[in-house]
Structure prediction request, 260 residues.
Amino acid sequence: MKTKPTIPYAELLNEAINKEGVLSDCYSRFHNFSIGNQLWAWLQAKEKKLELGAIATMKQWNELGRKVKKGSEAIYLTMPLTLNRKDSNGKKTEETYRIFVPKKNWFLLSQTEGDDYTPQTKIAEWDKDKALAELKIEEIDYDMADGNCQGYAVARKVAINPIAVLPHKTLFHEIAHVVLGHTLEHTMADSEITPRDIREVEAESVAYILCSVLGLKGLVESRGYIQSWLKDQTIDDKTAQRIFSTANKILNAGKDTQNA
Prediction:
């Protein structure tokens, strides 16, 4: 029995950080999917030597007047599955949780034929105030004496230095610290606290992803910051998954739903 693949989060994050333009290119084509799925679709297309383009299920392509070419192999994407938790006796409770499972249901435009199809491209739009409200984060005045500090986060509050070099990148970085739970870790046991180098890599990787998707400056500086903290370490799949999930959450919180 063939085992279903698992999404290679660490590999995708490495590709995203080291190949400029990949994230923005993926987002323009695959904006209806999570950032992790966008990159996984890109990687599978690359491995199968398929032209990068819009993706849809066979049913969706049929509805658009196109047929999947004979012999085409579908690609995987992960999809959420909601399950009920069980009590000590093994009986289902009303409490639910979600897991993500790979499903092999999608085909790229280049794997189809039929009526003309013009893919829609999506330029991401992000509203800071909407995102902060959605995430329940408050932006406060910067009051640190250290003028070299670009910004900071405490509890569910963030502050950005008025003279920060790249204020948008710093804002993403500090919001990421909050969403990742780093600012609340002082209440946890020492064994549960994320090491500072990993915290900084996580937060800055989120900032890098968001700057890439939104077409903002700071990618070179962001890569340098990530490498300075990462040094000779590697990012594992669990950490990379947290990074993608956080970036997706922040991006969606600030999306203009009227134009989505």
